[in-house]
Amino acid sequence: LGSSSSVPFTSIFSQLFMTVVVPLIIGQIVRRYIKDWLERKKPPFGAISSCVLLMIIYTTFCDTFANPNIDLDKFSLIIVVFIIFSVQMSFMFLTFLFSTRNNSTFTPADTVAIVFCSTHKSLTLGIPMLKIVFAGYEHLSLISVPLLIYHPAQILLGSLLVPTIKSWMVSRQK
């Protein structure tokens, strides 16, 4: 195309390492030392985690759609929603097909875990990665729209598929 650009790989990888890997390592180390205390006290980490995730989603939605440069018309947004739902359903269907093949050694419970876990993408990791990789990019809000749609889509589709997959799993285990 006749144009070139430089990408600060060292900066990006160091920021990703500090944002993703270091907290994970610290959490695993701290967990070892306070595991007994946590089991006795049983803090409400599930509720805290849900609240933090909700705040991340809310602030990301606000940042994205409050940006005057987003320039996203309704038709384009509907097309993106349709594409993302189609991609999510396709991934779930393909993982189901591959994990239930005749020569597969997966149990029905394994298949359910594969279908739901292999297609899971989270805003809690995706948005910080986008902000690091595309730091200073004026259309960051536009880039984050697919992830903002994908995360709720996987929750919605997963909850809609639970009864069907549960009945399939129960019938297979008999």
TrEMBL record:
Keywords: Membrane, Transmembrane, Transmembrane helix. It comes from Poecile atricapillus. Pfam families: SBF_like (PF13593). The chain crosses the membrane at residues 12-33, 45-66, 78-99, 111-137, 143-165. The gene is Slc10a7. This is NTCP7 protein. Belongs to the bile acid:sodium symporter (BASS) (TC 2.A.28) family. The keyword Lipid metabolism does not apply. GO terms for cellular component: plasma membrane. The keyword Lyase does not apply.
